[in-house]
């Protein structure tokens, strides 16, 4: 029994080196392993310490704050600035000639419901719009769901870019409808991104983490060969090994899935504009 106790003590000592476990490469490997089923937002760690987390739509999201966070959130919302991470919302980008975009987009919305994609103040790119989408030529039946959209400001060219934001539960239906009305097909050459790490590689990374019984020296062979682990590519609504861009050979319209590539935050509170003013700085004008 004494020998068994000594053996168990040696096994436990391998995981006691917190400094080794907290190295950046080991943390990223561990985070990637835990994101195999549910993707984390970039603010996940902050939320996980203050919120009750839930797993929905392929993401791990903060559902409700803990008791210690209610007063702080309310105080920030009423007196300062409260930031919400809405990056789990999906973004589809449409690029092409403005008249071609508007002609087909008119088939999935109706002026009878109010705003459309060709509203003047939205078309200029200065404001965000919101509307309900329907299946092509099926209004008032077969509603797909509510979306928000914003045009890239005009630059004098007839080519425009449009970003459509939607809930992840609606993404596949809306994407399927957009590809149908614009007659977009799979690209001939699909770029398949290199995975963050295969399951075997990730397990090897974890074996290194768990087998670090002593502090690793700088000249150690493992330390020399260690390379940063890449972040997982893709999001909870898209397989990282499937195409994320589709093109119409007839009109040249390109549909791209920008989910988790364009982050989105919502600021609430009287000091929201002040925070943006202090945070964002206008870039200097560069001429070629």
UniProtKB/TrEMBL annotation:
Residues 4-96 form the Pop1 N-terminal domain. GO terms for biological process: tRNA 5'-leader removal. Coiled coil: none annotated. Pfam families: POP1_N. One of its GO terms (cellular component) is ribonuclease MRP complex. It comes from the Eukaryota. InterPro entries: Pop1, Pop1_N. PANTHER family: RIBONUCLEASES P/MRP PROTEIN SUBUNIT POP1, RIBONUCLEASES P_MRP PROTEIN SUBUNIT POP1. This is POP1 protein. It comes from Oreotrochilus melanogaster. The gene is Pop1.
């Amino acid at each position: 029994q004494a020998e068994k106790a000594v053996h168990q003590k040696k096994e436990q000592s391998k995981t006691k080196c917190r400094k080794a476990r907290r190295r950046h490469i080991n943390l990223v490997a561990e985070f990637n392993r835990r994101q195999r089923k549910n993707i984390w937002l970039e603010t996940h760690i902050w939320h996980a310490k203050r919120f009750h987390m839930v797993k929905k739509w392929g993401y791990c999201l903060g559902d409700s704050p803990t008791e210690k966070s209610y007063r702080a959130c309310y105080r920030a919302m009423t007196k300062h600035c409260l930031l919400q991470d809405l990056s789990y919302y999906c973004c589809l980008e449409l690029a092409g000639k403005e008249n071609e975009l508007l002609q087909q987009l008119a088939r999935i919305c109706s002026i009878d419901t109010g705003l459309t994609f060709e509203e003047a103040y939205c078309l200029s790119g200065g404001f965000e719009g919101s509307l309900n989408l329907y299946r092509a030529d099926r209004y008032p039946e077969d509603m797909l769901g509510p979306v928000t959209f914003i045009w890239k400001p005009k630059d004098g060219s007839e080519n425009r870019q449009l970003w459509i934001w939607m809930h992840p539960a609606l993404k596949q239906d809306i994407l399927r409808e957009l590809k149908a009305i614009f007659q977009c097909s799979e690209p001939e050459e699909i770029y398949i991104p290199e995975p963050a790490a295969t399951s075997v590689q990730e397990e090897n990374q974890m074996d290194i983490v768990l087998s670090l019984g002593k502090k690793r020296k700088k000249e150690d062979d493992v330390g020399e060969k260690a390379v940063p682990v890449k972040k997982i590519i893709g999001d909870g609504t898209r397989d990282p090994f499937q195409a994320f861009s589709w093109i119409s050979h007839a009109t040249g319209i390109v549909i791209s899935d920008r989910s988790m590539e364009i982050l989105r935050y919502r600021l609430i509170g009287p000091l929201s504009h002040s925070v943006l003013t202090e945070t964002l700085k206008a870039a200097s004008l560069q001429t070629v």
